[in-house]
Write a structure and sequence with these properties.
Elements: E1 2-6, H1 14-23, E2 28-32, H2 33-37, H3 43-52, E3 56-63, H4 73-91, E4 95-99, H5 110-126, E5 130-134, H6 145-155, E6 160-165, H7 166-171, E7 187-192, H8 202-209, H9 220-228, E8 235-238, H10 243-247, H11 250-270, E9 287-296, H12 299-311, E10 315-320, E11 325-330, E12 333-338, H13 344-352, E13 355-363, H14 366-375, E14 380-381, E15 394-396, E16 402-406, H15 415-418, E17 420-422, E18 433-444, H16 448-458, E19 462-463, E20 467-471, E21 474-482, E22 489-495, H17 501-509, E23 513-521, H18 524-533, H19 543-552, H20 557-565, E24 569-573, E25 576-582, E26 591-598, H21 608-621
Parallel strand pairs: 1-2, 1-8, 2-3, 3-4, 4-5, 5-6, 6-7, 7-8, 9-12, 13-16, 18-22, 23-26
Antiparallel strand pairs: 9-13, 10-11, 10-17, 11-12, 14-15, 15-16, 18-23, 19-21, 20-21, 21-22, 24-25, 25-26
Helix pairs in contact: 1-11, 3-4, 5-6, 9-11, 11-16, 19-20
C-alpha cells in the first residue's frame, strides 16, 4: 500500500509544502491544482523538484464539474481535460482525480455520467493515464459513493476507477457494507480525513474542519475495516482542509499526517488485515500515573520556589548524586527541582524561565514506548549521565520539553535510590496531598490537534469532548486526554484570542507548556487550612459566586460558608462532587490547583470562568510574586 498526502493539507508555497512532505518521510504527493498554478516555474520544474526530493506525484486534483454537462459545456470540459493531461505529462503523473459535478447546469442520470467517463477513459488511456471519480458529499446529482461506483462500473473502462474519500462517506452516515463488494482493482485512490462531529452543511464542514485520522470523531476504523475487506493495497492518501493546518508549520503538520497514517494502518493490521509492507508497531503504552514533574529553575528563583513547595506540604526527600537537583515529595507526588548550571534543564530555563521542563510517566514498558514513539516520528532525547546513574528514555514533548518514561520491568523505577541521595525527613506530615490529579498544558491554537494526536497515538488513553471555556479575554478550547482509570489526566488548552490567560501564559513562557498542576487531596478543607497556615496565598473567589452557590445547590448555609472562608469552588454531577482551590499565580504564569474528587469524573468546567475572571482581576492589580 502506497501512502501519500495532498499539498492542500499544508501551509506555504508549493516548494515549502514539497520540502515538508519529503521531511516527513512520505513517498507520494497529490498536487492540488491551485498550488501548481501559483508555482513560480513550469510543471516540468515542479517535477524535477519533487523527484529530486525522492517523491512521486501520484495524483493531480481536482478536476471539477465534468460529468453530465449539456452542450456546448460538454465539449469544453473535454477540451479542458486534454489540457490537464498535458500538464500531467510534464508533472510525471498518471492519475487525474475527478470530483462529482456541483454546477447548476449539470444534468442527472447515471447512464449519462457513465458515458462521459467512458469517453474520458478513452482519452486518458491513449496518453497512458487514468481517471478516478469521487462523490462529493454536496454533489448536485452524485453525492453517495454507491452512485459514483455505479458510474464507474457502467463506464466499464480499465482507465476509469473510483475514489473513496472517508469524509464524504462518513459525514453523511452512508452505509459502509457496499464498499466490501467493490473490486479492489477498481479503487484507484482512497483519501483519508477525520473530522469532529458538527451540525453544519457538508461543504463548510469539509472545507474548514477536516483533520487527520484519530484527531476527530468519525468512525475511521469502521471505514478502514470495510476497505480492508476488499483486499485494497493501492494508493492511500490524506486530503485535509483545515484552518488550523493552514496557520501552522507545514513540516509539523506533515509529520502529524504521516504519524496518523502509521497509527491507522497499524490498528487495521491488528484487526487481521494483512499489510506486508507495514512494520509492526509496539502496542500503545499503558500508563499508571505521573512519576515526577521536573521544574527548571535558576539560582535566583530556586529558594523561593522550594519555599512554595514547603508551604504546600512537600518535603525534600533527596539530592541528586552529581547535579544541583532536589527531589521533593508528598504522598505519591514527586517534584524535581533542577537548578543545575549545565544540561537540558539549564537551557530550558534560559529560554523559558522557571517552568516545567519535563514530565515522567510510569508505563508498562519504557523501551517499547520509546520504540513506538520514534516509529511515530517523535524525537528521541538523550543527554550524558553520571557513572552508575540511570539513563531514562525520553522524547521531546510540548514546547520543547521532555517526556520521560519509567517502568518496573527494566528497573527504571529505582531512579530515586540509584540517582539520589536521601535527605532527612522532618516530622511534618504534609498538607494531605496524595497524587497528581491532572496536568494542564497551554498551547497555540494551531498546535492543539498535534498534541492530541501525539498523546493519543503513543498512550492508551481516551479523549473527552471539547469544552468551550469563557475567559474575560476571549474563548478557550479545552480538551482532556485520560486513561480509563484516571491515573493520567492531561488537559489541553488553546485560544485564538491573545488576551486570554492561556495566551498570556504562552507569551510569558515564550512557548507552549504546563500552566498548572492539580494535586489531589481527600480532605480539601483540611489541606487548604494547612496551606494558609504555612503562608501559601490562595486565589480569592468573588462573594457573588457563593451567594449563587447557596441558591443553585442543596448545600447547607454552613457548608457554603466553609467553602467561602477557604476560597473553594464546588461542582456536582448527580451524587458526584468536586472541590477546587487555586494558589495565586506564581512567576511565569504558573499556578497549582488543589482538588478533591468524590466519584466525580470531570474537571469543574462550570467553575472555569469564575477562576479565570479572578485570576485576570488579580493580575490587573498585582505583580506575581517570585517563586
Amino acid at each position: 500500500m502506497r501512502t501519500a498526502i495532498a499539498t492542500v493539507c499544508l501551509s506555504g508555497t508549493l516548494t515549502e509544502k514539497i520540502e515538508a512532505i519529503a521531511a516527513a518521510q512520505f513517498k507520494g504527493v497529490e498536487i492540488f491544482e491551485n498550488d501548481l498554478l501559483s508555482f513560480n516555474g513550469t510543471p516540468a520544474d515542479a517535477r524535477r523538484m519533487i523527484e529530486g526530493l525522492g517523491l512521486e506525484t501520484v495524483t493531480f486534483q481536482p478536476f471539477r464539474d465534468f460529468e453530465g454537462m449539456p452542450e456546448p459545456q460538454r465539449s469544453k470540459v473535454f477540451a479542458r481535460a486534454e489540457r490537464k493531461f498535458d500538464v500531467m505529462e510534464e508533472l510525471g503523473c498518471d492519475l487525474l482525480m475527478v470530483c462529482s459535478n456541483v454546477s447548476p447546469d449539470s444534468l442527472g442520470g447515471i447512464e449519462r455520467a457513465a458515458a462521459d467517463f467512458h469517453e474520458l477513459g478513452e482519452r486518458a488511456a491513449k496518453r497512458g493515464m487514468r481517471v478516478a471519480f469521487e462523490a462529493l458529499s454536496w454533489g448536485r446529482h452524485i453525492h453517495d459513493y454507491r452512485d459514483s461506483w455505479e458510474v464507474v462500473r457502467r463506464a466499464n473502462h480499465p482507465a476509469v476507477g473510483l475514489v473513496l474519500d472517508s469524509f464524504h462517506v462518513l459525514a453523511r452516515g452512508t452505509d459502509l457494507s457496499a464498499i466490501r463488494s467493490i473490486p479492489s482493482d477498481k479503487i484507484f485512490l482512497v483519501q483519508m480525513a477525520d473530522a469532529p462531529r458538527l451540525d453544519m452543511d457538508y461543504l463548510s464542514w469539509s472545507r474548514h474542519y477536516r483533520c487527520f485520522p484519530g484527531q476527530g470523531d468519525l468512525p475511521i476504523g469502521e471505514f478502514m475495516n470495510a476497505l480492508g475487506a476488499t483486499g485494497f493495497d493501492s494508493l492511500l492518501s490524506l486530503e485535509i482542509f483545515n484552518d488550523r493546518f493552514r496557520a501552522g508549520s507545514a513540516r509539523s503538520v506533515a509529520i502529524d499526517g504521516h504519524r496518523s497514517l502509521i497509527v491507522m494502518l497499524d490498528e487495521l493490521r491488528r484487526t487481521g488485515v494483512v499489510l506486508p509492507e507495514l512494520a509492526e508497531l509496539p502496542p500503545k503504552a499503558v500508563c499508571s500515573g505521573v512519576e515526577f514533574v521536573e521544574f527548571a529553575v535558576d539560582e535566583r528563583s530556586v529558594v523561593g520556589f522550594e519555599r512554595t513547595l514547603s508551604g504546600l506540604g512537600f518535603q525534600k526527600a533527596g539530592h541528586h548524586r552529581s547535579k544541583a537537583v532536589n527531589r521533593w515529595r508528598q504522598g505519591d507526588i514527586n517534584i524535581v527541582v533542577n537548578a543545575d548550571k549545565e544540561g537540558f534543564a539549564h537551557s530550558f530555563n534560559i529560554t523559558h524561565g522557571t517552568s516545567v521542563c519535563a514530565l515522567a510517566l510510569r508505563v508498562n514498558d519504557a523501551p517499547e514506548t520509546v520504540e513506538r514513539a520514534t516509529t511515530l516520528l517523535d524525537q528521541p532525547f538523550q543527554q550524558p549521565v553520571g557513572p552508575g546513574e540511570l539513563n531514562i528514555p525520553a522524547v521531546r514533548g510540548l514546547g520543547g520539553s521532555l517526556l520521560y518514561f519509567v517502568d518496573h520491568k527494566t528497573g527504571l523505577d529505582r531512579l530515586w535510590d540509584v540517582d539520589f541521595e536521601p535527605t532527612e525527613v522532618s516530622d511534618f506530615a504534609g498538607a494531605g496531598l496524595v497524587t497528581v490529579d491532572h496536568i494542564s498544558q497551554s498551547m497555540h491554537y494551531e498546535e492543539m490537534l498535534t498534541w492530541l494526536l501525539f498523546y493519543g497515538s503513543l498512550l492508551e488513553v481516551r479523549k473527552t469532548p471539547v469544552q468551550t471555556v469563557i475567559d474575560p479575554g476571549g474563548v478557550v478550547q479545552s480538551q482532556a486526554i485520560e486513561t480509563h482509570d484516571g491515573s493520567l489526566r492531561l488537559i489541553l488548552n488553546a485560544s485564538q484570542s491573545q488576551r486570554t490567560l492561556s495566551s498570556r501564559f504562552l507569551n510569558e513562557l515564550f512557548g507552549s507548556g504546563v500552566q498548572h498542576i492539580a494535586l489531589a487531596t481527600s480532605d480539601i478543607l483540611a489541606t487548604v487550612q494547612s496551606l494558609k497556615e504555612h503562608g501559601v496565598d490562595l486565589l480569592p473567589i468573588p462573594e457573588n459566586y457563593y451567594d449563587d452557590l447557596e441558591v443553585r445547590t442543596d448545600l447547607s448555609a454552613d457548608d457554603v460558608e466553609r467553602l467561602r472562608a477557604n476560597n473553594v469552588l464546588y461542582d456536582r454531577e448527580g451524587e458526584a462532587e468536586y472541590f477546587q482551590a487555586y494558589t495565586k499565580t506564581l512567576e511565569g504564569g504558573f499556578f497549582f490547583e488543589i482538588v478533591e474528587r468524590r466519584r466525580y469524573r470531570g474537571y469543574g468546567a462550570v467553575n472555569a470562568p469564575i477562576r479565570l475572571a479572578s485570576q485576570t482581576h488579580l493580575a490587573s492589580i498585582t505583580v506575581p510574586p517570585e517563586l
